[in-house]
Design goal:
The chain is an alpha/beta fold and 588 residues long. The chain folds into three domains: 172 residues, P-loop containing nucleotide triphosphate hydrolases (Rossmann fold), CATH 3.40.50.300; 75 residues, no CATH class; 237 residues, P-loop containing nucleotide triphosphate hydrolases (Rossmann fold). The strands form four sheets. The chain has a six-stranded mixed beta sheet, with helices on both faces. A six-stranded mixed beta sheet has the order 16-17-18-13-19-20, with helices on both faces. A four-stranded antiparallel beta sheet has the order 2-1-4-5, with helices on one face. It starts with 17 loop residues before the first strand and ends in a 9-residue tail after the last helix.
Length: 588
């Protein structure tokens, strides 16, 4: 329902390309406004970064730019959104799609074709683009996102990150005036994320494409955005250049937004060294390195690096011997992997998209059969083990955890497996209550999972796994779509579970989240394990990480560039503060 006045088409060439006037919106069946009195103009060629906590209204804001909100979702809509002079209420979404390219948070919702090249060509064919132009655009778009050579692959056989790149390629091929991206790099490795942001900057510079990107990737936005919008509780809580918004660390923390890693670490150093507290904090790594060079020399007390954590030696929980796997199309996903994870360990597995991480995890779960080699759980070969037996030993939350949910209430979902196992109702109720409390979901017990945000649905899936109390827990990108505090809450839960003796395996791309949680890091590349060791040791293997296309956190690169910090080998802002004997007044 539209309750605003229709906008007149602007008659001036220099008029804003996008205009929001007093926009408020509530989804059908809800009185809660997810957008509240949004007033905003965006000019042609601007890159706008949209930040904010999970559930703040960022995705709804993005959907309002191409008329999907409210044309598709209906609901109650106040005010006006105009794009290139077209009112998004009156203009069909098919017409707006020619102007506004959209990349959704979940790539699975966009992919429909049976080959990669057909997926990118699909929208172009519907718009009746000439065939020679389609071929060129498909080729160029796939090259831009690093998917050349994947043209004939079925999208179902791509990794989550590769599917995300495919969705971005489909939007880029349309060459729209405006491209809107909702968490486009949430499933990408750091190197691939940097590539995507570089593409967006290139589009702005070469074709004056307007870019609106909602993301938790503050480090990348700090480098390319012209303006930052902080949306919190449906309102624009702050707006300005990245240097103003990202240096306001206290304000960002109040809104559950993580400042750039380097901004936090520089603030730690400033407190330690007594540098001018009134000076603006740098928001990029080069700026921080340059700033240190102009300030009084750092004095780091000898021995402040602390003692290394003792390594654990335990019986194996998971192990693979000479494991290989080749897909039917000939792709060698795993190539001779030998790996043992001890009982009670908290291990992180990292690697670029397509490095074999998810394929390895699927072998742990007996969802795939090895081409050669063996997989063992607590010392037993799983070849003769039933999948039902595996499920009692290993809990798994996939990178598309929302696809694991099918009950009509959150409480029903969390207790579903226990009810299928014919457990007594009081036992089920107690397990559900405990799991919901652990994941801070008691408020949603009677809600339908579909009504929750993607981040909250992920937590529902985790709660359902925890209810079964398996001894081994495997999480594939559990912090996808979560804000900073939500991510830390999930990892805090995993740390508590690990402290209770459970083996925890975490597959992730978010290196900045690992310090303080995982003790050991396994790096994969090209279907092989190329690094395996304590977190601090692996983070500072710069040359080998580069070969694996892994970019260490900014704090690590900062320490490598500042001689006074090299002896500390800090892993992140909080670790740096602890090693300097300061209170960890930082986000992560």
């Amino acid at each position: 329902m539209h309750m605003g006045n229709l906008a007149a088409a602007p008659g001036l060439a220099d008029a804003p390309l996008i205009r929001f006037e007093k926009v408020s919106y509530a989804y059908p069946g809800s009185d809660r406004q997810v957008l509240k009195d949004i007033d905003l103009t965006i000019d042609r060629g601007e890159i706008i970064g949209v930040i904010g906590p999970t559930g703040a209204g960022k995705s709804t804001f993005c959907l309002a730019l191409n008329g999907i909100v409210p044309q598709f979702f209906s609901g109650t809509f106040f005010g006006t959104v105009a794009v290139a002079g077209l009112d998004t209420i009156e203009t069909p979404t098919s017409r707006l799609a020619r102007l506004v390219g959209m990349v959704f948070e979940d790539p699975e919702t966009q992919i429909t074709a049976t080959t990669v090249e057909s997926e990118v060509a699909f929208a172009l064919e519907n718009l009746k683009v000439p065939t020679p132009d389609i071929s060129r655009r498909v080729r160029d778009a796939l090259a831009m996102v690093g998917l050349t050579g994947y043209e004939t692959k079925h999208p179902a056989n791509l990794s989550g990150g590769q599917k995300q790149r495919l969705s971005i390629a489909s939007a880029l091929a349309l060459a729209p005036d405006i491209i809107v991206l909702d968490e486009p790099t949430s499933q990408l490795d750091p190197a691939a994320s940097e590539d995507i942001f570089a593409i967006l900057l290139k589009l702005k510079r070469e074709s004056r494409t307007t870019v609106v990107i909602a993301t938790h990737a503050s480090e990348e936005l700090a480098q390319i955005a012209d303006r930052i919008l902080l949306i919190s509780d449906g309102r624009i809580a702050a707006e300005g250049p990245p240097s103003d918004v990202f240096s306001a660390s206290a304000m960002l923390r109040e809104h559950r937004v993580r400042p750039p890693d380097i901004t936090q670490s520089f603030d730690v150093l400033r407190r330690h060294a007594g540098w001018n507290a009134a000076a603006a904090l740098p928001i990029t790594l080069p700026a921080a390195v340059a700033a240190v060079a102009t300030l009084p020399d750092l004095e780091i007390a000898a021995g402040s690096a602390g003692k290394p954590r003792e390594s654990k030696t335990t019986a194996p929980a998971l192990s693979v011997d000479n494991l290989t796997y080749t897909y039917p199309d000939g792709t060698e996903a795993l190539r001779g992997i030998d790996l043992t994870i001890g009982q009670g360990e908290f291990v992180g597995i990292l690697g670029r998209n397509g490095s074999g991480k998810t394929t390895l995890v699927r072998h742990f779960l007996k969802l795939m059969a090895p081409t050669t080699g063996a997989v063992r759980v607590t010392g037993e070969d799983i070849a003769a083990m039933k999948v039902s037996e595996m499920a009692r030993r290993i809990g798994y939350v996939s990178q598309n955890a929302h696809q694991q949910i099918f009950s009509d209430t959150v409480a029903g979902e969390v207790g579903f497996a226990l009810s299928m196992m014919k457990r007594p109702k009081p036992e089920i109720d107690a397990a559900v209550e405990k799991s919901l409390a652990l994941m801070d979901l008691a408020w949603a017990a009677d809600r339908h999972p579909i009504s929750l945000s993607r981040g909250d649905r992920l937590r529902v899936a985790i709660a359902a796994v925890l209810a079964l109390e398996p001894q081994i827990l495997i999480f594939d990108e559990p912090t996808t779509g979560q804000d900073w505090r939500g991510s830390l809450a999930i990892l805090d839960t995993l740390k508590v579970l690990n402290g209770l003796g459970k083996t925890v395996v975490l597959v992730t791309h978010h290196l900045y989240l690992l310090p303080g949680f995982t003790e050991r890091l396994v790096i994969m590349n090209g279907g092989k394990v190329v690094l395996d060791g304590p977190l601090r040791q692996v983070f500072y293997e710069s040359a080998r990480l580069k070969e694996a296309a892994i970019i260490p956190p900014q704090t690590v690169r900062f320490a490598e560039a500042v001689p006074a910090l090299r002896g500390l080998s800090p892993l992140g802002p909080r670790d740096l503060a602890e090693r300097l004997g300061l209170a960890p007044e930082v986000a992560a």
